[in-house]
């Protein structure tokens, strides 16, 4: 939806084809933390997009509110990380041994990061049940209430005149002289001048169905994440708090999100009793005031997993008008505005201050997971 809106605002006629309902996959299922978790574990290609998006989000949220009347609830909650255990971010494809020293990382990228002691932890957020002698504190980290953001983006499609085809699927492509000239959408032929593939965890699967000889499909695979929400008004939790690789996110209305699992289970979005018990036990241990809070919902989503969490933002090496914008793994919400900006620059041949080579369609990415 970000891509469709940005293209429409540049004057293009845009049709968004969605196999289910717009915005109801991984972006809806996630937590909305606008920072990578333990960001020093990630390559610069991820942090560069995250930091640019952090600059773009206030204006984006304000413009969506003005256009649609829907408040995405962009909040400056800060991010408190009680530990940094080796291997916690293995889902990013980067081991702790390869991660930068956190303070060196902060100096290099200009991030506001501080190491605080037990007394300072209590001042930042009281009521924490897990004892920790020190923690990492990033006071400027924001969150967005992602379902509200997605509703606003969906409404903005109508405001700007983007044609939306839901419950529709791209079945094959017509390729002539190195260009995509059309395809079949749910059995009906549609002509178009260019195609952007932004199908999340299904992106590689869609490409495999197109029978393109080269290159091989991007290394994007589904990675299940289970989360829950507690109805806990008055709990006192005001900060995003992380420990043991999991987190609590306080919403404006008192609800608390608890996340998340990282499971390589194919396209299975089934929730499990084991994950429910583990997430609930974590929430109660980290913030005991949540023990009386009822579980309001428990769900699962499929992240578009990619090596090191680096997305693909590029034109197809052989097809001049086929582009990809996918593979954002755990950081689609925080990287989305900046990666959309980079994609438009690629489409229109504009120069960018950002090195685009890490996001190449056939670029080298280290490690599968």
Structure overview:
With 369 residues, the protein is an alpha+beta fold. It contains nine helices and 16 strands. It has helices at residues 2-9, 26-29, 44-68, 102-109, 118-124, 146-160, 203-209, 273-286, 332-348; strands at residues 15-17, 79-81, 114-117, 134-138, 163-165, 170-176, 179-185, 188-191, 195-197, 221-231, 240-243, 246-250, 255-259, 295-305, 312-315, 322-326. Strands 3-4-2-11-12-13-10-14 form an eight-stranded mixed beta sheet. The chain has a three-stranded antiparallel beta sheet with strand order 6-7-8, with no helix packed on it. Strands 9-16-15 form a three-stranded mixed beta sheet, covered by helices on one side. A hairpin with a 2-residue loop joins β11 (240-243) and β12. Residues 85-97 have low confidence and may be disordered.
Which radius of gyration do the C-alpha atoms yield?
A: 21 Å
What is the oligomeric state here? single chain
> Helix fraction?
25-40%
Distance between the termini: 27 Å
Given the helix and strand composition, which structural class is it?
alpha+beta
If you average the pLDDT, what whole number results? 92
Number of strands: 16
Descriptive keywords:
alpha+beta, 8-stranded mixed β-sheet, 16 strands
Short structural description:
With 369 residues, the chain is an alpha+beta fold. It is built from nine helices and 16 strands.
What is the topology?
Elements: H1 2-9, E1 15-17, H2 26-29, H3 44-68, E2 79-81, H4 102-109, E3 114-117, H5 118-124, E4 134-138, H6 146-160, E5 163-165, E6 170-176, E7 179-185, E8 188-191, E9 195-197, H7 203-209, E10 221-231, E11 240-243, E12 246-250, E13 255-259, H8 273-286, E14 295-305, E15 312-315, E16 322-326, H9 332-348
Parallel strand pairs: 1-5, 2-11, 9-16
Antiparallel strand pairs: 2-4, 3-4, 6-7, 7-8, 10-13, 10-14, 11-12, 12-13, 15-16
């Amino acid at each position: 939806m970000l891509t469709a809106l940005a293209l429409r605002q540049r004057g293009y006629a845009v049709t968004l084809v969605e196999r289910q309902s717009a915005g109801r996959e991984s972006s809806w299922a996630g937590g909305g933390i606008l920072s990578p978790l333990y960001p020093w574990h990630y390559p610069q290609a991820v942090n560069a997009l995250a930091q640019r998006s952090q600059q773009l989000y206030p204006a984006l949220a304000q413009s969506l509110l003005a256009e649609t009347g829907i408040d995405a609830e962009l909040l400056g909650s800060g991010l408190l990380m009680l530990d940094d255990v080796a291997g916690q971010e293995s889902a990013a494809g980067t081991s702790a041994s390869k991660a930068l020293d956190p303070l060196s990382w902060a100096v290099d990228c200009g991030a506001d990061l501080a190491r605080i002691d037990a007394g300072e932890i209590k001042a930042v957020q009281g009521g924490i049940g897990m004892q920790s002698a020190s923690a990492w504190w990033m006071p400027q980290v924001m969150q967005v209430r992602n379902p509200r953001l997605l509703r606003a983006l969906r409404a903005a499609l109508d405001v700007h005149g983007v044609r939306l085809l839901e419950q529709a699927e791209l079945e094959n492509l017509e390729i002539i002289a190195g260009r995509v000239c059309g395809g079949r959408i749910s059995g009906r032929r549609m002509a178009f001048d260019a195609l952007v593939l932004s199908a999340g965890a299904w992106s590689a699967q869609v490409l495999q169905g197109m029978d393109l000889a080269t290159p091989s499909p991007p290394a994007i695979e589904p990675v299940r994440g289970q989360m829950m929400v507690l109805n806990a008004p008055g709990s006192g939790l005001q900060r995003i708090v992380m420990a043991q690789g999991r987190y609590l996110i306080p919403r404006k209305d008192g609800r608390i999100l608890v996340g998340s699992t990282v499971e390589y289970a194919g396209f299975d979005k089934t929730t499990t009793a084991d994950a429910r018990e583990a997430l609930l036990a974590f929430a109660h241990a980290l913030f005991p005031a949540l023990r009386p809070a009822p579980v309001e919902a428990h769900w699962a989503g499929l992240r578009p997993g990619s090596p090191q969490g680096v997305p693909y933002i590029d034109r197809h090496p052989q097809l001049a008008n086929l582009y990809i914008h996918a593979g954002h793994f755990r950081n689609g919400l925080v990287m989305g505005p900046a990666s959309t900006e980079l994609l438009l620059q690629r489409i229109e041949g504009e120069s960018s201050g950002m090195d685009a080579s890490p996001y190449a369609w056939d670029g080298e990415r280290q490690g599968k997971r």
